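User: Can you predict the 3D structure for this chain?
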Amino acid sequence: MQPNLTPSQLFMEGLEQHCAEVAAEVEDPMLAEFLRELCDCLGTADWTRESEERFADLFGRLAKLVWAGVASAQTGVSEVPYEISEILMPHREHSEP
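Assistant: Here is the predicted structure, written as structure tokens:
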């Protein structure tokens, strides 16, 4: 990590690093693709309105993934607020040419 970063810069850098680590280890190809795209977005050096909107969309989906994971862990059943495929499918449609 670089010295003298703001808290938000530290957060973004840490998030990028952890997403890259998980993307390298996860077995689900759709989830790995999503995390790689999030890493690419976080690594953007020159932010534009479009990249900010894309980040907001990806980060919102990441929050839903976390929520679904926590709910599943707490209940031990598959009834969770969001199904992973529902979260990642719009991402997949956006990524395809």
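Helices lie at 7-25, 29-42, 49-75, 84-95. Residues 49-75 form the longest helix (27 residues).
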